[in-house]
Design a protein that fits this description.
Layout (H helix, E strand, L loop, with lengths): L1 H24 L7 E7 L4 E4 L13 E7 L2 E7 L2 E3 L11 E4 L4 E4 L8 E11 L2 E15 L6 E4 L11 E10 L5 E8 L2 E6 L2 E5 L6 E9 L6 E11 L3 E4 L3 E4 L3 H46 L1
Parallel strand pairs: 1-9
Antiparallel strand pairs: 2-7, 3-4, 3-8, 4-5, 6-7, 8-9, 10-11, 11-15, 12-13, 12-16, 14-15, 16-17, 16-18
Length: about 300
């Protein structure tokens, strides 16, 4: 009975010794932190960046992945072990042993953070760390295309303030800012207003909104768009432009004249033609009556 239990006890002791070494040796020794991005609910690939210049066989090594004090994954001498993996990562990790890369399945926002890869080799029965690296995982969720909503009530009149709202939802991480683009007469003005941000308590995704309150030039077409800045590496999203044209009083009168002038001319022409046709019919009728009387 004692002999059967010995391997299990030895394995636990190895894990304890390894973590003791890790806690003492790891802080501040890795230097470079590799940044990794993964889309929400997709697989995140966390490489060990192990050059393996000595051509070590994974069957001679112990490989651990940690996030803080949580055990994310472990490989003992070529065999993946799941006994010590933290509950958050159960059945969610596997290692590509040819590429020394951990695959984190169905990555969520809670999985963001710093991951450490530690590779250990036995030297004269004493565990020795031969490689360690760090990956900082960032999760990305796509925002919806910004949409502009009309808040103004009734018909917009000249010199009256236009009220609009632009919103985007379901994204991560928190965006940088929202910008209004107002274009008319080959000129574009940028306006940055306050951005309201809310985060869903369950999904951790963000919803953002900004408002615009401005006048619009008359007698010219104005295009208004909303730009959502996600960051230097993630780029920006832009809304469908909203086109507005306000025609002031005199232009309306000119429009009426331009419209009704040709219409009146057509009506007059039709009246003249009808009058001519009626007159002609009467002339023919009178001629027929004269012929009848003569007979």
């Amino acid at each position: 009975m004692t002999l059967k239990e010995t391997p299990a006890i030895y394995s636990v002791m190895e894990v304890f010794i390894f973590f003791l070494y890790a806690m003492i040796l790891l802080p501040g020794t890795t230097g470079i932190v590799h940044e990794v991005k993964s889309f929400l609910n997709h697989t995140a690939y966390l490489s060990c960046y192990f050059p393996n210049s000595q051509k070590n066989d994974i069957k001679d090594l112990i490989v651990f992945w940690q996030k803080g004090l949580e055990v994310v994954h472990e490989v003992f001498y070529g065999q993946e072990k799941h006994d010590n993996i933290s509950p958050e990562y159960k059945n969610r990790t596997k290692m590509d042993m040819d590429k020394w890369t951990l695959q984190l399945l169905n990555a969520g926002i809670v999985d963001e953070g710093l991951y450490k890869c530690i590779i250990q080799q036995r030297v004269k029965e004493i565990p020795s760390i031969i490689h360690q690296s760090e990956c900082l995982l960032h999760i990305i969720a796509n925002y919806s295309q910004p949409e502009i909503a009309w808040l103004h009530k009734g018909e917009l009149k000249p010199n009256e303030y236009l009220k609009l709202c632009c919103s985007s939802s379901g994204g991560y991480p928190e965006p940088k800012q929202m910008t209004w683009l107002i274009s008319h007469e080959n000129r574009t003005h940028r306006l940055v207003n306050h951005m309201d941000i809310s985060q869903d308590a369950v999904t951790k995704l963000y919803n953002v909104t900004t408002k615009l309150n401005t006048t619009v030039p008359t007698n010219t077409l104005t295009n208004i768009s909303c730009l959502l800045h996600l960051g230097e590496e993630l780029g920006s999203l832009v809304s469908v432009p909203l086109g507005i044209e306000i025609i002031q009083g005199e232009e309306i009168e000119q429009l009426k004249i331009h419209f009704f002038g040709p219409l009146i001319a057509v009506i007059v022409l039709i009246t003249i033609l009808l009058g001519f046709a009626i007159l002609k019919n009467r002339t023919i009728s009178c001629s027929n009556q004269s012929v009848s009387l003569a007979v």
